[in-house]
């Protein structure tokens, strides 16, 4: 769904739940409170127009974006009647979006979202009015600290409501985006105070900060262009990764087909459960897709051998992680970083893995996710040499090897993710089942190791 589309039913519900209370509260503040400051129409028009213009200067980060409107918002709090500022902020948003409505870039019904977006103005206005701190000179500026905290708190609540009622974006991802918003607002607030101080005796002195707004506009455009280029390049590398995955599927239907898709799906869920950032999650996705790519060079009869391999065959099998890294290094770019994770996807938490014997935190975090998800998928699917284990048995096996073969936090995350997919009567049994002693390491994807080998 794009901004040119009409809001969904969920979006309508969320925005009515946010917008209607804002209009009631903002109107009550305007009618019942009084800052004692007169309304000067000229500066008010300029500030509203400036707010609308800055609302289009977008710096994208994660699941959202931020705008440098704080530069004007703080000035409005101190140079206009403070009780009117929330409604004037809403007016600025409406004016700023008029060109998009006219061009069809923005659906007119999305104007319903603007009152919810204006909630951030309520908190600071109430704090300053309650404290009687409406003069930027002297010591009144100290009240900006609780005012800013009130603004951040309200933005958090609005994001939580939207996450609950309308958006598919997890609240955790929204919080990551809010951290960026809060940082920009906190850094621009002092400049807004300086502009307000200069405007006490000279009503239009705040115009001196607008060249900074133009500079931010240039920076935002440059940054967004670079982000678009990076996304295009990332899409190209993702396409290469998908092509390599298709080649692997052609070479071995099990390894490249259902197994790889299953590992990718589970790895992404576990990455979300662990709260990995956007880059780490992207790395997990590509590493899960390509973790077996080196098996292209391994003879099919070894990969599909219905029984343990001999020592020579096992050494050849273990080389697939090195071969996978070598292939991805030749592609270069972001896939070279993925190659490092692919190489480490068969390392063990206790140092007994291959090819480098890495231990604990020296193993790339993304590789620990892929390794455990690979093992779980291998245990719960039929192989050429054995039948699939039950989900409960596979979870028990992972938990028994947590801290030895697998990262404990990753195993815990897999248990939580998998348990959510089970029927209610099986869920508690899966998460609290008694552990049993294991005599051998958990098997990963691919043929089984020789019986004398401590590795799988």
Automatic annotation (TrEMBL):
<keyword id="KW-0378">Hydrolase</keyword>
<feature type="transmembrane region" description="Helical">
    <location>
        <begin position="118"/>
        <end position="135"/>
    </location>
</feature>
<feature type="region of interest" description="Disordered">
    <location>
        <begin position="423"/>
        <end position="456"/>
    </location>
</feature>
<keyword id="KW-0472">Membrane</keyword>
<feature type="transmembrane region" description="Helical">
    <location>
        <begin position="41"/>
        <end position="61"/>
    </location>
</feature>
<feature type="transmembrane region" description="Helical">
    <location>
        <begin position="177"/>
        <end position="198"/>
    </location>
</feature>
<keyword id="KW-0812">Transmembrane</keyword>
<feature type="transmembrane region" description="Helical">
    <location>
        <begin position="16"/>
        <end position="34"/>
    </location>
</feature>
<dbReference type="GO" id="GO:0016787">
    <property type="term" value="F:hydrolase activity"/>
</dbReference>
<feature type="transmembrane region" description="Helical">
    <location>
        <begin position="204"/>
        <end position="220"/>
    </location>
</feature>
<dbReference type="InterPro" id="IPR006675">
    <property type="entry name" value="HDIG_dom"/>
</dbReference>
<keyword id="KW-1133">Transmembrane helix</keyword>
<dbReference type="InterPro" id="IPR037522">
    <property type="entry name" value="HD_GYP_dom"/>
</dbReference>
<feature type="compositionally biased region" description="Low complexity">
    <location>
        <begin position="429"/>
        <end position="440"/>
    </location>
</feature>
<feature type="transmembrane region" description="Helical">
    <location>
        <begin position="141"/>
        <end position="165"/>
    </location>
</feature>
<feature type="domain" description="HD-GYP">
    <location>
        <begin position="233"/>
        <end position="430"/>
    </location>
</feature>
<dbReference type="InterPro" id="IPR003607">
    <property type="entry name" value="HD/PDEase_dom"/>
</dbReference>
<feature type="transmembrane region" description="Helical">
    <location>
        <begin position="73"/>
        <end position="98"/>
    </location>
</feature>
<protein>
    <submittedName>
        <fullName>Metal dependent phosphohydrolase</fullName>
    </submittedName>
</protein>
<dbReference type="Pfam" id="PF13487">
    <property type="entry name" value="HD_5"/>
</dbReference>
């Amino acid at each position: 769904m794009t901004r040119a589309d009409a809001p969904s039913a969920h979006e309508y519900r969320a925005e009515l739940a946010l917008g209607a209370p804002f209009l009631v509260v903002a109107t009550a503040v305007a009618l019942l409170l009084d800052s004692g400051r007169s309304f000067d129409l000229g500066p008010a028009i300029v500030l509203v127009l400036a707010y609308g213009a800055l609302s289009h200067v977008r710096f994208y980060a994660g699941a959202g974006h931020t705008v440098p409107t704080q530069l004007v918002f703080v000035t409005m709090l101190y140079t206009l009647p403070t009780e009117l500022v929330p409604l004037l902020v809403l007016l600025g948003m409406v004016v700023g979006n008029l060109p998009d409505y006219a061009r069809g870039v923005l659906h007119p019904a999305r104007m319903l979202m603007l009152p919810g977006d204006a909630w951030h103005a309520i908190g600071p206005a109430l704090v300053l009015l309650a404290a009687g701190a409406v003069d930027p000179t002297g010591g009144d500026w100290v009240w900006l600290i609780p005012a800013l905290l009130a603004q951040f708190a309200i933005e958090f609540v609005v994001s939580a409501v939207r996450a609950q009622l309308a958006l598919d974006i997890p609240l955790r991802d929204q919080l990551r985006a809010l951290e960026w918003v809060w940082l920009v607002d906190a850094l621009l607030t002092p400049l807004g105070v300086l502009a307000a101080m200069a405007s006490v005796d000279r009503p239009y002195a705040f115009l001196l900060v607008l060249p900074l707004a133009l500079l931010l506009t240039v920076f935002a455009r440059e940054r967004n262009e670079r982000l678009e280029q990076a996304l295009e390049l990332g899409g190209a590398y993702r396409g290469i990764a998908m092509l390599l995955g298709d080649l692997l599927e052609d070479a071995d239907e099990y390894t490249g087909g259902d197994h790889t898709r299953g590992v990718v799906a589970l790895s992404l869920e576990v990455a979300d459960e662990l709260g990995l950032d956007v880059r780490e999650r992207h790395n997990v996705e590509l590493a899960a897709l390509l973790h077996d790519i080196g098996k292209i060079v391994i003879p099919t009869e070894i990969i599909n051998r219905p029984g343990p391999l001999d020592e020579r065959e096992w050494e050849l099998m273990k080389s697939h992680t090195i071969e996978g890294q070598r292939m991805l290094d030749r592609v270069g770019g972001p896939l070279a970083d993925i190659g490092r994770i692919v190489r480490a996807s068969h390392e063990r938490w206790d140092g007994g893995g291959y090819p480098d014997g890495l231990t604990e935190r020296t193993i790339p975090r993304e590789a620990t996710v892929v390794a455990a998800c690979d093992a779980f998928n291998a245990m719960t699917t039929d192989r050429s040499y054995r039948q699939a284990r039950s989900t409960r048995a596979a979870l028990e096996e992972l938990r028994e090897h947590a801290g030895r073969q697998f990262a404990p936090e990753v195993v815990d995350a897999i248990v939580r993710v998998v348990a959510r997919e089970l029927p209610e009567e099986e869920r508690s049994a899966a998460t609290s089942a008694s552990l049993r002693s294991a005599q051998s390491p958990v098997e990963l994807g691919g043929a089984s190791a020789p019986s004398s080998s401590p590795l799988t």
